[in-house]
Amino acid sequence: MAGTRTRRGTGSEQSRTARAAALAEQLHHECTLLLDLYRKKETFAKELTVSGDHLVTVPPLSSQLLPNDMLWRLYSALQQCRNLLERAIGREEVVGNGEDRAQYENQKKTVRDRLGHLLESTRLLLADGAGTAAFTPEPKNTEIDGPVNGSPFALKLWIYRIFNELEHWTLTASNTLKALHPDGATPKERGTSGRARGRRTRR
Amino acid sequence: MFSINIGDENFTRCQQSKPTLSVCHIVAHALVLLLNNRPVYGQTQQLSRPETTETDYKPTPNHGIFYGSNIMLVFLLWASLFLSSLQEQNGQDAPGVLLSGPQNVSVDNDLKDQRIYVTWEDDPSSSRVPDKLIYDVEVLLTDNMTEVHSEAVDVRSDQASRKYHWSWTSALPLECTSHSVRLRSRYQNYTSQWSPLQTITGRASSHPQVFPNSSVVQVDSNITFCCILGPGQRLEYMKYNNILMNTTHIIDQSYAMVVHMQSPSPPSCINVFCNSPLYGTCVYVGYPPGDRNLVCETRDLESVRCHWDTGRATNLTNQRKTHYHLNGRACPNRTVSNCYQTVRVDQGERNWTLTARNPLGTLELRDTADLKKRVRLLAPTEVVASGVNASVQWQWERQQYHILLMVCQVQLNHSGHIDMRNYSGIGLRSVVLHGLAPAQTYTVQVCCGLKQHFWKWGDWSKGSTFKTKEDIPEALDVWMQVKANQTIILWKPLTVNQSHGQIKDYEVTWGRQKTIIHPPQNEFLISNRSTDEGHRVTVTANNSAGSSTPSIIIIPRLPHRSKTSMKIVGSDGGFDLSWSASPNASCGYVVDWCPTHTKCRLEWVKVPAGITRARIQSASFEEGVRYTLSIYACTPWAPELWERREGYVKECLPKGQIQRLAAEQHGPDTVLISWTGIPPENQTAFIHGYIIYYFDTSHPSSLRMFNVTTDEPWAKNLTGIPVSSYRFTVKALTSVGEGGDSSPVFLQMNPQTDQLITVIIISLGSAACLLTLVTILCYRNWKCVKENLYPKIPKPVWKEEWLTPLEGHGCQILYVDSCQPSEIDIVCNRVQSGEAVLDNNAGKSALTNTNSDVPALHGHYNQVLSKTTSGHFTFSSPHAMCSPSSQLSGTVIQNPSYNLEVQACLDMGQSVGYEPDINSSSCPNPELYNMSYVPFEMDSWGYKLQCHLEASSPLQE
């Protein structure tokens, strides 16, 4: 990674970091809500956990990394999340009506929009801006395109995995950005925390 | 050549050794039947019940029952030998059957529909079969060769040498395990050998997989799910919609469960899990198409438009929703209940077929119609209406309509009132409307249909609004309201339907005077009625079209005579009024009304001649308000007041309060209750009387009531009321109940004795005051009084010895010279000790009052008036009195005051009952008289006299 500049930046940078951290925390809350709505819609048990290859593939975020490298990896992961979310929205059947459906659809839109804002905020924090390409998923990972056999059940699981990825990476973004902020806390401490997710080991 | 060994191989060999039906076949077949006991014609094998616990999935076995009795065998063998001999004798007539079995058998499947397709070609030997050939088809579970279905398929002889297709739907998904199919041909009792097994391989997986995948099933059906586990895996659970289900072991790593679909699935399918939520499938549950009532028609004479009712919702969406085809052509994708296709309409009567298809079924609806007789016209366009000549024009978008004989409906909407008119003509495009009201706004709409072969009315056009021309107003309804010397000419404002346009002004003419009144004013005050011309008033209304017909009213020369009002009771918010006929009512009657006690503008209604009743209704009527209704007779001259009524539309409980309630005690048991009634303007009902309620405050339950009619004054004496404390209230009695409660008053009644004492005290006080006054006056004018009443008496001359007191006595007894029975005077002198004893014998002088009025007391001389130790005088009886004598020795005493003292003493003696017998010369009965006088002060004399008279017995002397 090209970013070698230290993160002891100017006050405006710190402010941007704090804002991005707050945005990530808010987005994580929205993703958690979206996941709950999806579980309810598809009658998935809350304890349902997904396994297998991860849809988002970035090198692991290590505390030994330089801040800019860490931001690059985070940015790459969020970008993959956005692509997956767009695919999920495109493939998911819009069925049903009523209040629950409207709430779910609104939540999807909220997450999509806010994820775009977080991506832009994260990009602005990078030392070399948008000039460097982000990590891309492995080409051999065919799961990112979703099930090919048209099975509704497989499609359900695939979307569920995407929402799980979203929830995980927004939590990671929130924690990482908080750590990068000198104060170590966002201006608006929300007190919410992500679910315990000890099952994952990010590559 | 013939082998008794039982088995397919030998059986086959036997078949191949002789191309005709042989004894070998029969015997072998019979032995197979008997020993193997396997049915030739099986039935579809059903899965065991899913509710049972996990068990091996085994079709019902065909247990062999050996009937191998030697008798049967021998019989069959002999029978076959007999047949064989017959065949050999008639070999040329027999069909010469040699069944080679189905050829080119192929098996295919549709995993989605769980369907097995079998194709084969005819048995070559079937050409020699005169009747139908039968093929036996068997479906087996490959792993254990368990039969799951068998079926006999008829093939007619005329279909010989053709390719046959057969299919079967498996309840168990074909992925769950491998299935095999075999066939054979059969003619009468001859069968071919089974075709080689054709196998459909089941699915194997490294992780749990659930089948069928994404199936669509009908509500109220059963569906079998199977879970195929990976090698070495164990089944933990199968769940349907998160509900744990019972499973059945099919074979090896395959398990099944059967679910009854009770209700439609949500738009998102229902999940089925095996071992983990990550492994599963989902199922859509819905209904097949339920459309009905297909109707086809044409709108534009260029296309057909069919519509139908969708019926019950299928609950299937997206790719699974119902797709429609009309006469084989697909309807647009979003078709729900109608389908449109361009066609030629001049093809006469034809069939229109709609096919509705979804994954659960296909439905066909048919309609037969000649589209030329099924024309529903489109809506007219550009509808324009003109108020000048009240005509309506419109256009047709389709040129074909111009040659059609059509009938059109024109709907006129005027303030919510709908008027429908029908017109007909070829290619109708305009109509003229008649009978429209002037200056009114109408909205017109048009729709048309074919007059010949009328099918349905077409669509309504959009509405077009227009306004008709104005016309002169209708005549005004005029009346009058007389107030003292003034008369108000009133008229009702014209409604929109009456004014025929906007009223510009009103013209009032009386005599030679004319006045213009502008709306909204609709009355005119005439104060001077002195001239004759002034009694006739004319009113007209004017709009842009002209003036209305004049309305005339004649004001009476003299005020109406007052009439006694009769009570009337309203009903349903009005009055049902009736009156006696008036001989003068040549042009009917006028009834006007107004609140009795408040100012108002009159309202009125005119009643035609000959009718003497009317229902009086007004929006201004209020409940609880008294109205006066006047009935006038309409005459050629001025109206005459005929009758008058007063009443309430609806009586209400009095809202006003009875005022000034007072209670006053009059006499020992009488209370006067007085009050003032509810003012007439506050009365909300006719008051029929008052009720006085009272009770003893010490006994609140002792409530009593007393009715007072309105004929009585607003005061009432209540008698017979015991002395106590009372609470009084008064209520007004109306036809709707009691009301107008007064404020309560309390009265504490006093006993009569108290009053008597009061009177006595007052009287005594008054007397004391009077006496005091007299005393004061007498004191101040004492001299005058004294001179007038007691003229001065010269002082008597006393001799000293006469006045010398006796020894030992403070009292002297005057002796009379001649002791004749006479009156004696006793003079008690005040002594130092305050006591004196008068002894008639103690002195020689006698005190005689010649002028004394004291009656003569007859007694004896020498009687001693002894002094008691108590200081009382004691008279010894008989009387120790001296009679007054004119022959007294010495000086004559003339001081009347002395006489007065004696007199006083005597009076006292009389007052205690001592009455001397003055007529008796002898002594009275020697009866003891004890006279005791309590000394009292004689203010006027300044000392106390205490007398004690004792009638002593002579023995005491």
TrEMBL record, chain A:
Q: What InterPro entries does this protein's entry cite?
A: 4_helix_cytokine-like_core, Ciliary_neurotrophic_fac_CNTF
Residue ranges, annotated region (Disordered):
179-203
Tell me one GO biological process term. Answer: negative regulation of neuron apoptotic process
Q: Which GO terms describe its molecular function?
A: ciliary neurotrophic factor receptor binding
The name of this protein is: Ciliary neurotrophic factor
Q: List the source organism.
A: Hucho hucho (huchen)
UniProtKB/TrEMBL annotation, chain B:
**Membrane topology note:** Single-pass type I membrane protein
Query: Where is it mainly found?
Result: membrane
Localization annotation? Membrane
**UniProt KW keywords:** Disulfide bond, Glycoprotein, Membrane, Receptor, Repeat, Signal, Transmembrane, Transmembrane helix
Q: Which InterPro entries match?
A: FN3_dom, FN3_sf, Hematopoietin_rcpt_Gp130_CS, Ig-like_fold, LIF-R-like_Ig-like, LIFR_D2, Type1_Cytokine_Rcpt_Type2
Q: Which GO terms of the cellular component aspect does the record hold?
A: plasma membrane
Ranges for the Fibronectin type-III domain?
379-471, 472-561, 657-752
Q: Which domain of life is it from?
A: Eukaryota
Instruction: Quote the Pfam families the UniProt record gives.
Output: LIF-R_Ig-like, LIFR_D2, LIFR_D4
- What GO molecular function annotations does the UniProt record carry, in alphabetical order? cytokine receptor activity
Question: What is the name listed in the Swiss-Prot or TrEMBL entry for this protein?
Answer: Fibronectin type-III domain-containing protein
According to its UniProt entry, this protein's organism is Hucho hucho
